[in-house]
């Protein structure tokens, strides 16, 4: 009894003691303890140095307290790589009793979101930012945050949150009424995600972003009467445009990059407060609807199927409209003059439509705020009048691929306050000379005048454009020399002057332009030696000097160009030997320099007067149809055309991918060092004076697809090592002094005899058998069976359209030139997105019926192959499924497939374009 009393007394005393202590001391102490426990859970606690036990937490880095209570009210530890699981965040931070705001943006937090049952979340926590972490797990983890009753704003952008089918039956986010929820850039998939998220209703929601997920399904926001900001762009929606009900609050609506369709005008008609509307890249069709324009500042309707004129009702948005993008539709007619009332307009993009008439210069001049004007890829005619020069606010002017003619105004950039940075006039019909007054445009970074009919010389005054990065003047009729003054432009990155009538030499000052990445001077009348100092251009990635009159040796210094992947010197008078130094960078090239440049590659037809393997050309802003203009003044017919954007993907281990030295006077032997270029795809050394043996090392070029050593004086045997070149699809060894038996096996079974003609000593398939003196009868039998196999493989090849092009890094997707009737072939209508296997990702392949696949086959087993159809291959590889992927052999993915007869084959998937002209 005594003891009991004592115990009771003691505890009473204790309680009263606690009551009488100043409140902040113990509770702040509790905050400190929580924070210290959190610190202890980090893998690197030293990041929070001044978080110490027994200290006032209000002095801790990133911690803020209420002034009156001294309780922790806000924590911001963004961009500190805390590196911990979500669990300590929930246990020690979310439970801080007075916490209102917690920001752990980009703090390297992983694990899944869940609030531990039994703990008590701060009842005043309203703001939580966990964006840019590695949080995973499912959306339903968010539901456990209903323990935090005051949570209003939650940012989970840039994590790996998923949504699984199982969750469809759960109670969703009931109990949570967010005002702001940002789930952008996660891994949320499926058609039930939006109903799940909105299960509590939509009364409170003001801001919702699901951008960059794969959400689909029908969605309805008509009950979200407070919704101000909605971004569902970059998802998989393919339904009709959602309903927004009365839409009283909506200011920002971005539904771009989906497949929405339907009546846009009706769906958003009531959204009177709409400030930004972005429906870019959807399937809206018909005439542009009447839109709520009262508050509209930014309107993007590009990449849809809108037809008809630019409607006059759009002008109701002026003068408030700042941005108008109608590009890539099918709009016709002319630009209405009432657009002149859009005096605040800064960006006006109507490119890639079918608009006609003269350039609406007077209307454009009234748009006095205009900074970016893009009228490219339309059918505007007439001239570019000098009065256009009065537009001094303009920074970027793109008139490429229209039908403009007359001369380029000399008055451009007349005023001292001009701001022009980009001038794109390529692919028009401009005549006259390149005005030397363009040097007034002192801020110019891009000057594209290619594909016109310009005459005269390149003005040396352009050398004063110190900011200039692109000087692209190819396919004109310019003559005279390349002005040495151009080499004062230190910023220069691309110098593209092909297909002119230029004479003289490459100015030696070129080595001063150390930012040069792409030099293309082919098809001129340039001569002199290639300056040795060109090796100082460390960023030089593409050098094309073909079809000129350069002489002397190939400068060994070129081997110092640490980024060179494309070297085309064909059809000059170069002599001397192939310098082994050229291959010095093999295995070390890390090309990231040249990215996103549009190009075409024209594969030559191999006719007598057509030299070189093919032509790589800069192609920004030029219509493909216009290529016929090249064939009109060039002896070559192109057998195939490929176009894409450059995107090299080496990882410090690259090598040259294209080397064409044909039609020169090179002598000596082929250096063994050539074998170091493990990514080389095209090697063309034909039509020189090369002698000696073919080096064994050539067998190390495992990525090689096209090899031409023809018309030299090579002797000895074809190295057996070459049978290992499993991707080789074209070979030409004709007109040499080679001897011995053509190697057996590998791709050699597929080559025809013209590849080996005129070598007095060569024998064996596909040439006549080697002399019976050397062949035993068993050997003959063996050869017979090989021949049968070869012809079978040959028929497979014919059936499947062999050979192809696919450049690693500079990957080339087929483009068809002549509009051809789309073949009804559903088997070809597949979409293969190689980004889904990121280790081999270098491209996205879109294959349509027009773009046939090319496939080369190599048997794993030595069974002869049957004739296969494309459908057989789709089936055998399970639609080129990742599971069948066995490698990405340099330039294309290789799949293993089991055919119906049980044989196993390797299939290299490439893209092919059938003959165009
Ligand atoms: C982020 O966390 C992971 C483990 O989850 C760790 O491997 C990585 O090094 C951390 N990153 C940084 C920048 O601390
Ligand atoms: C969410 O976080 C991301 C990345 O930190 C940020 O870009 C975005 O603006 C945030 N969302 C909101 C609504 O603040
Ligand atoms: C509109 O959406 C497209 C595609 O998602 C995007 O590239 C563009 O920047 C957006 N424009 C504006 C003004 O938000
Ligand atoms: C564009 O419109 C014209 C006439 O309205 C039509 O003939 C043509 O097929 C359309 N083109 C596309 C790509 O929709
Ligand atoms: C552009 O319009 C003309 C005539 O109006 C038509 O012949 C042509 O096919 C159209 N081009 C496209 C790409 O729709
Ligand atoms: C390269 O530039 C330097 C000064 O920047 C100049 O002295 C030199 O003459 C230039 N070289 C050539 C070959 O023009
Ligand atoms: C290369 O040609 C030049 C003249 O163009 C000549 O002077 C030189 O001797 C030649 N070199 C070789 C190795 O043939």
From TrEMBL:
Transmembrane portions of the chain: 792-815
Sites where the protein binds ATP: 909
Organism encoding this protein: Salix suchowensis
SMART domains: LRR_TYP
Taxon lineage: Eukaryota, Viridiplantae, Streptophyta, Embryophyta, Tracheophyta
Keywords per UniProt: ATP-binding, Cell membrane, Glycoprotein, Kinase, Leucine-rich repeat, Membrane, Nucleotide-binding, Receptor, Repeat, Serine/threonine-protein kinase, Signal, Transferase, Transmembrane, Transmembrane helix
Protein name (database record): non-specific serine/threonine protein kinase
Major enzyme class: transferase
Ribonucleoprotein found in the keyword field: no
């Amino acid at each position: 009894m005594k003891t009991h009393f004592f115990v009771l007394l003691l505890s009473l005393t204790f309680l009263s003691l606690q009551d009488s202590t100043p409140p902040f001391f113990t509770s702040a102490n509790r905050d400190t303890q929580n924070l210290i426990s959190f610190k202890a859970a980090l893998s690197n606690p030293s990041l929070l140095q001044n978080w110490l036990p027994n200290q006032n937490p209000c002095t801790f880095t990133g911690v803020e307290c209420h002034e009156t209570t001294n309780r922790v009210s806000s924590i911001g530890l963004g961009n500190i790589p805390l590196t911990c699981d979500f669990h300590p965040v929930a246990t020690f931070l979310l439970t801080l009793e007075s916490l209102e705001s917690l920001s752990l943006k980009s703090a390297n937090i992983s694990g899944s979101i869940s609030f531990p049952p039994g703990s008590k979340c701060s009842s005043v926590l309203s703001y939580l930012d966990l964006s840019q972490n590695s949080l995973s797990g499912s959306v339903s983890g968010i539901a456990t945050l209903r323990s935090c009753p005051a949570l209003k704003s939650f940012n989970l952008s840039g994590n790996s949150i998923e949504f699984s089918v199982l969750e469809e039956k759960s109670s969703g986010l009931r109990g949570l009424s967010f005002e702001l929820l940002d789930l952008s850039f996660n891994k949320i998939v499926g058609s039930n995600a939006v109903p799940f998220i909105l299960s509590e209703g939509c009364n409170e929601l003001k801001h919702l972003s699901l951008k960059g997920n794969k959400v689909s399904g029908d969605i309805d926001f008509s009950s979200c009467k407070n919704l101000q900001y909605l971004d569902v762009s970059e998802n998989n929606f393919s339904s009709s445009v959602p309903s927004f009900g009365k839409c009283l609050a909506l200011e920002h609506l971005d539904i771009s990059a989906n497949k929405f369709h339907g009546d846009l005008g009706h769906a958003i008609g009531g959204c009177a407060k709409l400030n930004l509307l972005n429906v870019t890249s959807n399937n809206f069709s018909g005439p542009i609807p009447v839109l709520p324009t009262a508050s509209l500042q930014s309107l993007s309707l590009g990449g849809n199927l809108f037809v008809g004129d630019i409607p006059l009702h759009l002008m109701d948005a002026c003068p408030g409209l700042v941005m108008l993008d109608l590009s890539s539709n099918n709009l016709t007619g002319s630009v209405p003059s009432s657009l002149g009332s859009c005096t605040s307009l800064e960006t006006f993009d109507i490119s890639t439509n079918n608009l006609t008439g003269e350039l609406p210069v007077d209307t454009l001049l009234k748009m006095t705020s205009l900074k970016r004007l893009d009228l490219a890829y339309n059918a505007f005619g007439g001239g570019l009048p000098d009065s256009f020069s009065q537009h001094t606010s303009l920074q970027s002017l793109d008139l490429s691929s229209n039908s403009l003619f007359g001369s380029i105004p000399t008055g451009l950039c007349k005023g001292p306050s001009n701001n022009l940075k980009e001038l794109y006039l390529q692919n028009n019909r401009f005549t006259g000379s390149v005005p030397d007054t363009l040097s007034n445009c002192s801020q110019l970074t891009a000057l594209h005048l290619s594909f016109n009919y310009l005459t005269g010389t390149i003005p040396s005054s352009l050398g004063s454009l110190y900011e200039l990065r692109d000087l692209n003047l190819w396919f004109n009729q310019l003559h005279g020399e390349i002005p040495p003054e151009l080499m004062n432009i230190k910023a220069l990155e691309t110098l593209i002057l092909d297909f002119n009538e230029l004479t003289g030499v490459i100015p030696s000052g070129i080595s001063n332009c150390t930012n040069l990445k792409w030099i293309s001077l082919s098809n001129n009348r340039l001569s002199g030696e290639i300056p040795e100092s060109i090796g100082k251009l460390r960023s030089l990635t593409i050098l094309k000097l073909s079809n000129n009159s350069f002489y002397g040796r190939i400068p060994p210094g070129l081997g110092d160009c640490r980024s060179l992947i494309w070297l085309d010197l064909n059809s000059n008078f170069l002599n001397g030997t192939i310098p082994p130094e050229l291959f010095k960078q093999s295995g070390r090239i890390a090309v990231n320099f040249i990215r996103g440049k549009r190009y075409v590659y024209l594969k030559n037809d191999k006719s007598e007067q057509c030299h070189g393997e093919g032509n790589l050309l800069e192609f920004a802003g030029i219509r493909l149809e216009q290529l016929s203009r090249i064939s009109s003044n060039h002896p070559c017919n192109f057998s195939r055309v490929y176009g894409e954007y450059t995107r090299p993907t080496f990882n410090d281990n690259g090598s040259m991918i294209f080397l064409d030295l044909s039609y020169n006077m090179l002598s000596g032997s082929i250096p063994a060092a050539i074998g170091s270029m493990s990514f080389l795809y095209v090697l063309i050394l034909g039509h020189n004076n090369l002698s000696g043996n073919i080096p064994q090392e050539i067998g190390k070029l495992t990525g090689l697809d096209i090899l031409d050593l023809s018309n030299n004086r090579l002797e000895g045997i074809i190295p057996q090592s070459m049978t290992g070149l499993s991707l080789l699809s074209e070979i030409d060894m004709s007109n040499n002094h080679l001897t011995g038996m053509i190697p057996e096996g590998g791709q050699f079974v597929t080559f025809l005899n013209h590849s080996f003609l005129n070598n007095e000593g060569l024998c064996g398939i596909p040439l006549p058998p080697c002399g019976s003196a050397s062949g035993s009868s068993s050997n003959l039998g063996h050869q017979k069976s090989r021949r049968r196999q070869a012809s079978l493989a040959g028929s497979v090849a014919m059936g499947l359209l062999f050979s192809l092009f696919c450049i690693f890094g500079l990957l080339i997707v087929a483009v068809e030139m002549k509009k051809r009737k789309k073949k009804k072939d559903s088997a070809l209508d597949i979409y293969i997105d190689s980004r889904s296997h990121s280790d081999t990702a270098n491209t996205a392949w879109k294959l349509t019926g027009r773009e046939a696949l090319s496939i080369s086959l190599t048997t794993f087993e030595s069974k002869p192959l049957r004739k296969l159809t494309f459908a057989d291959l789709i089936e055998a590889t399970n639609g080129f499924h990742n599971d069948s992927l066995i490698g990405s052999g340099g330039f294309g993915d290789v799949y293993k497939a089991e055919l119906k007869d049980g044989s196993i084959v390797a299939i290299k998937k490439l893209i092919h374009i059938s003959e165009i002209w």
